[in-house]
Amino acid sequence: MDNPRIVSLLCSATEIVSALGFRDNLVGRSHECDYPAGVEALPSCTTAKFDLNGTSGQIDDRVRELVQNGLSPYHVDDARLRDLRPDIIVTQDQCQVCAASLTEVEAAVRDWTDHQATIVSHNPNLLEDVWQDIERTADALGAPERGRELTGACRARVEAVREKTSAAPVRPRVGAIEWIDPLFTAGNWMPEMIEAAGGEPVFGEPGVHSGTIEWETYRAANPDVILVIPCGFDLVQIDRDLPNLLAMPGWAEMDAVKAGRVYMADGHQYFNRPGPRLADSVEILAEMLHPDLAAPAHEGTAWRRVA
Hints:
The chain is built from twelve helices and 13 strands. The chain is of the alpha/beta class. It folds into two domains: 6-123, Rossmann fold; 169-305, Nitrogenase molybdenum iron protein domain (Rossmann fold), CATH 3.40.50.
């Protein structure tokens, strides 16, 4: 396709489109797309129906109320989307509370009679699914070779970390927390990434969605490393919400806390965003888990030590 007009309704898709060399073809974005720098200037085609500010507990309450009433947490601006006349729309059907869904986008374009758009929907559960979504997007854009080149580089970086950390004498047990209130442990691609970085995931199964867990169950598992990566939260937001976790009964007695192996990381930009920077995320994990093998290149910007 020559010079396609692209609307991305997903942060990770905006990164993918840009990494494939089509940044200048983007004509619209979601309200959360913020990377690479400058995409914020593009017209936004979605809005959240809930207040994005507050603690994890407050945000969870707002989203649950909408979903329980049969409403989507997001609104697609049909009129703006039509005015942008995209040839390609990239969306997702992996998580209804993460971004505008495939169903909503299909409804928005259903009555278009003067213009047809191809919808590319991402639904990754495993790390390999993310790489395949990149390649499918490249195929839709008429640049399959760019997709293979990008995924090849991502796979190579992950394997380089795996090889490096294979020399570690100990593989720490990692309890990754994807939401604080209610407590969620990280699933999908996170267990794979922890293993690639030289750790053993205590919770979560590869390819299975993240799920809630009782605090007592988490505490009893007593992981060697506690990793706090709330979905959609940057370091500033995590810092504000962290007191709720630190106040949990028995927190100070956990081995990870006593050993100073509690870390928080920017889930919004890295771990929760299924795009090319998942390769960065594996490298970040290695920095935390095996600082003797991986220099802390991202410390202070993408992650920091809590205790």
